[in-house]
Write a structure and sequence with these properties.
Chain A: Heterodimer; heterodimerizes with SNX4. The complex is a heterodimer. Chain A is 61% helix and 7% strand. Chain A is mostly helical. The longest helix of chain A is centred in the C-terminal third of the chain and has 66 residues. The chains are: A mainly alpha, B alpha+beta.
């Protein structure tokens, strides 16, 4: 079988398909360097970047009516659509939400990336805790980066305004209709037409998304349970370590070794806590994000079905009119146009989505594996460091009974 | 992973000393000298291997356990486990061992042996037996005495018990112990014939009874305190460890759920399929690795348990001292009171309350003859009392000396054994971390390689 299926093989024996070998020995560095190389390969596809967006610097704002967080959005671009080469604005979650709805409206044939969940149950999650804000920031950054990478969405006017406007509220209030031609067109597609046959490829996408979301949901539940079990394990560990300290206080020669073991267990506990935090902050959000993504993609597919249904219905209506070689009316042509554009856009977006999904999950799974490796390395170091302490020989004590008197 | 058992090579004199039929204060000077000699020869290492004045070395093993059914004392059917004890003598020259004795014993017989040793060697910290019933279990282990894992660990514990005795400079020479290893039939009767149950001080069994001792040896008071604390801390440690094991098991087993879902997911993917399949497989391997890990940890727990029970043995020696001191003080008190009575009678002053004094007041003075008679009786009693006090004092001092010698030996053994136990625990953790870290690395690399295809 493949040389890497036997886990005892040293990593330096692995040969990559392109002939390279991973650097270093079996240390965590080797897997991340391998990851980096693969990502580099993915990026090299001819596209030159002319737009860079970063979300950072969360700040809390306390007003009389409410308290909320804003994030700084920094944009750097050479595109003509931007008046200045660089922008820096502050936005809050509802601004992102506004952007997303506008994108859905104006670009209905495209897949719009998901936002992190809007509502959080108060009391369960602290909306202003560092961890929550950081998790959200990462998700919002991801959201904008995905739009930035999209050849159509990145040129959207609403997106431009979001990145550049000093005061977004003015634009929101004005409710400027900046719908594209397609957006306008799809907006008026009426539902109620029944689809005859869904083209195979779109049916396949639908089925895939159903199963995909289901599996991710299961993985999310398992991950949550693991975290719960790990926390309970941590609670016991935090009680276990100190008992060795208590024992150490009773002893003479054994005092140092026992104290060493106590400290060691303490270190392992801390390492575990870090691992569990990482899982909560990095792993779970991405799973949730892709589940939300799947949901929104399913809606887009439904819309596509509607467009096709309308077209087919209108076409049929024309065919039923007993005319000799009827000329296809303009509005039916428009429907066909609409449908074909939709299909093309959707197909292109699906392919893009699949690529990104592969990269994202690779990073996610490898990242988690890496974190686990780091956890074991930390524990390993802790235990290895006390071995010399445990083996230390103390001064031989003379037995008291040498004295017979 | 083996328990930290003492060196299995032992020396045993084929015709050992008779056990004590006399006082329970210890073997006296003889023992002390031999103990000292053994210690001198064994300094820097185990006492076991260097007792050169014995003729041959022996090896003891409890090699098998078997389920048996039989009828008990009340003629009722019962199931029990019997253990095979094999003794081998090792030829000095070529190291070859020859099976010399082999017999079956059940747990209750081991208990009988120990109870006998406790009575005849009250100044010795007698090695403990493995637990009668499984305690400190975490959920997976059965608390059932018939469970094969429990029986196996008990077998090891019983072997360790015998090895501890065989390596003890004094206990190894006991005849009853020798017969335990060599005489299958009638051994129980032989033990009972020593009459040790009669010699046993029932007060020692009353663990919680306190005796108001005015001048105990401070070292023993401190030591009793230490043994109580040690018992308490090791119990706590074992309880928490069991909970930790339980939780850790849970963490690993939930990871096992990943296997199936990753496999199902891989079925709908094109490029990611192989990588996900490999991830699922590795999750299964990870989940199943917990069983070995926890089994190894049980051995560590057993090592701690032995010292938990040793703490009790330590405490018993302290209690014995307390009792002896108590008896001594009572005897001294008694003697003092009799002396005073005598003095009062002689001088005619009544300071102490006595029934005779009361009746004298009520019914009139006694005659000089009567008084003389009473004084004589008291003088005899005082004489006897002084002799007794003298011997009790001597006994007490001997006991303290001999007991403390064994306690020092025990302390060294304890420190050695527990250090070893901690080291092997650390080594276990290290090996586990390396194994699991390696596992993650392998599946990481495998996943990435699949991605690169």
């Amino acid at each position: 079988m493949s040389p890497w299926s036997n886990w005892e093989t040293e990593t330096k024996d692995l040969i990559l398909p392109n002939g390279g070998t991973p650097a270093g020995t079996s240390s965590p560095a080797s897997s991340s360097s391998l990851l980096n190389r693969l990502q580099l390969d993915d990026d090299i596809d001819g596209e030159t970047r002319d737009l860079f967006v970063v979300v950072d610097d969360p700040k809390k704002h306390v007003c009389t009516m409410e308290t909320y967080i804003t994030y700084r959005i920094t944009t750097k671009s050479t595109r003509v659509e931007f008046d200045l080469p660089e922008y820096s604005v502050r936005r809050r979650y509802q601004d992102f939400d506004w952007l997303r709805s506008k994108l859905e409206e104006s670009q209905p044939t495209h897949l719009i990336p998901p936002l992190p969940e809007k509502f959080v149950v108060k009391g369960v999650v602290d909306r202003f805790s560092e961890e929550f804000v950081e998790t959200r920031r990462k998700a919002l950054d991801k959201f904008l980066k995905r739009i930035t990478d999209h050849p159509v969405l990145s040129f959207n006017e609403h997106f431009n305004i979001f990145l550049t406007a000093k005061d977004l509220n003015i634009y929101k209030k004005q409710g400027i209709a900046l719908l594209t031609r397609m957006g306008e067109s799809v907006k008026h597609v009426t539902g109620g037409y029944k689809l005859r046959t869904r083209p195979l490829e779109f049916a396949a996408i639908g089925d895939y998304l159903d199963t995909f979301a289901l599996k991710l949901g299961t993985i999310d539940r398992i991950a949550q349970r693991i975290i719960k079990e790990e926390i309970e394990y941590l609670v016991e560990l935090r009680e276990y370590g100190p008992v060795y300290s208590t024992w150490s206080a009773l002893e003479g020669e054994l005092a140092e070794p026992l104290e060493g073991v106590s400290a060691c267990i303490g270190n392992c506990s801390t390492a575990l806590e870090e691992l569990t935090d990482d899982m909560t902050e990095d792993f779970l959000p991405v799973l949730r994000e892709y589940i939300l993504y799947s949901d929104s993609m399913k809606s887009v597919l439904k819309k596509r079905d509607q467009v096709q249904a309308e077209y087919e219905a209108k076409l049929e209506a024309v065919a039923l009119r007993k005319e000799d070689r009827p000329k296809v009316p303009a509005d039916v042509e428009k429907c066909q146009d609409r449908m074909e554009c939709f299909n093309a856009d959707l197909k292109a977006d699906m392919e893009r989505w699949q690529n990104n999904k592969r990269q994202d999950f690779r990073q996610l799974l490898m990242g988690m594996a890496d974190k686990n490796i780091q956890y074991y390395e930390k524990c390993l170091m802790a235990w290895e460091s006390i071995i010399p302490l445990l083996q230390e020989k103390q001064e031989a004590k003379f037995p008291v009974t040498a004295v017979l008197s | 992973m083996e328990q930290a058992t003492p060196d299995p090579e032992r020396q045993l004199q084929p015709a050992p000393l008779e056990p004590l039929g006399r006082s329970d204060a210890g073997l006296g000077v003889t023992v002390d000298e031999e103990a000292e000699r053994a210690r001198e020869e064994g300094s820097g290492g185990d006492t076991m291997t260097h007792n050169n004045f014995w003729l041959k070395k022996i090896e003891i093993s409890v090699s098998e356990a078997e389920k048996r059914t039989g009828r008990n004392a009340m003629n009722m059917q019962e199931t029990y486990t019997a253990y095979l004890i094999e003794t081998r003598s090792v030829e000095h020259t070529d190291g070859q061992s020859v099976l010399t004795d082999s017999l079956w014993r059940r747990y209750s017989e081991f208990e009988l042996l120990r109870n006998y040793l406790l009575v005849y060697y009250p100044h010795i910290v007698v090695p403990p037996l493995p637990e009668k019933r499984a305690e400190f279990v975490w959920h997976k282990l059965s608390a059932d005495n018939m469970d094969p894992d429990f029986v196996e660990r008990r077998r090891i514990g019983l072997e360790n018990f015998l090895l501890r005795i065989a390596s003890h400079p004094i206990l190894c020479r006991d005849k009853i112990f020798y017969l335990f290893l060599t005489q299958e039939g009638n051994w129980k009767e032989t033990v009972n014939e020593t009459g040790f149950q009669l010699k046993a001080d029932s007060r020692l069994k009353a663990l919680n009874a306190t005796f108001r001792v005015k001048n105990p040896d401070k070292r023993f008071t401190d030591l009793k305190h230490y043994s109580d604390e040690l018992q308490s801390v090791i119990s706590h440690l074992l309880r928490v460890r069991a909970r930790v094991a339980d939780r850790l098991y849970g963490v690993y087993k939930v990871h096992g759920n990943y296997g199936r879902v990753f496999s199902e997911w891989s079925a709908i993917e094109k490029e990611m399929g192989d990588g996900l399949q490999s991830a699922g497989h590795h999750m299964d391997v990870y989940a199943s690795s917990i069983d070995d890990i926890l089994e190894d940890e049980e051995h560590y727990a057993d090592q701690l348990k032995e010292y938990l029970f040793y703490a009790e043995a330590l405490r018993a020696v302290c209690r014995k001292h307390e009792l002896m001191q108590y008896d001594l003080e009572i005897a001294a008190q008694d003697l003092a009171s009799k002396k005073q009575q005598c003095e009062e009678l002689a001088t005619g002053t009544v300071r102490t309350f006595s029934l005779k004094g009361m009746t004298t007041k009520l019914f009139g003075q006694e005659t000089p003859e009567q008084r003389e008679a009473r004084i004589k009786v008291l003088e005899e009693q005082i004489n006897e009392g002084e002799q007794q006090l003298k011997s009790k004092n001597l006994e007490g001092r001997e006991f303290v000396k001999n007991a403390w010698a064994d306690i020092e030996r025990f302390k060294e053994q304890k420190n050695r054994d527990l250090k070893e136990a901690l080291i092997s625990y650390a080594v276990m953790q290290i090996s586990m971390c390396k194994k699991l870290s390696g596992l993650h690395l392998v599946w990481t690399n495998s996943y990435l390689c699949f991605s690169a295809l």
